[in-house]
Write a structure and sequence with these properties.
It contains four helices and six strands, in the order E-H-H-E-E-E-H-E-E-H. It is an alpha+beta fold. The chain has one domain: Lambda Exonuclease, Chain A (Alpha-Beta Complex), CATH 3.90.320. It has a six-stranded mixed β-sheet with strand order 1-2-3-4-5-6, with helices on both faces. A hairpin with a 2-residue loop joins strand 5 and strand 6. It starts with a strand and ends with a helix.
């Protein structure tokens, strides 16, 4: 599913506005659909709601919204697998924003953040591209969100991700 439109200018303001629009879209989706549905239902409804909330009015650049975008994972130059980004928003030629949708009873966790960081790292092939992301969890008690931005090299993000996983494993072993 691809949709395009015209969009914005001030980079910092645009990222904040984008986050606000996505947050508002998620709240509206939850208000209309409630809890207990499949992740793919929320994902499709979220894209529709983002378009209704005029996502394409926050910048002067072109915006492209794609769903279920395959992203390759490489190891020593070889593709070893693929992930699927729920929603990828491309703003002009300099910004990518990943939206990862979850639907379950419990809270966002470290593995959700790790998945988002891995997607961002896989997308960052050019240092000039600003990449950020947002996790949205639809629960029986409402929505939870978390946001991240990265202007670093992919290796830095993966290293941060690996360090976070190491801390989680240590915590698990202690229990």
């Amino acid at each position: 599913m691809d949709m395009t439109g015209d969009v914005g200018n001030n980079a910092q303001h645009n990222r904040m506005r984008l986050t606000e629009i996505i947050q508002a879209a998620a709240e509206r989706v939850y208000q209309l659909l409630g809890s207990g549905l499949n992740e793919s239902v929320y994902q499709k409804a979220l894209v529709i709601e983002m378009m209704d909330l005029n996502l394409a009015k926050i910048t002067d650049s072109r915006v492209l919204i794609q769903t279920e975008v395959p992203v390759p994972y490489t190891y020593k130059g070889s593709v070893v697998g693929h992930g699927r980004i729920d929603i990828l928003i491309t703003i002009g030629t300099s910004s990518l924003f990943v939206v990862e949708v979850k639907a379950r009873k419990n809270q966002l966790n470290v593995s959700d953040q790790e998945q988002l960081l891995q997607y961002i790292a896989a997308l960052m092939t050019d240092r000039k591209v600003h990449t950020g992301g947002m996790l949205i969890l639809f629960t029986s008690n409402g929505i939870q969100t978390a946001r991240t931005e990265h202007d670093r090299q992919p290796e830095d993000i993966v290293r941060q991700s690996a360090l976070s996983m190491g801390r989680q494993e240590e915590t698990t072993k202690e229990k």
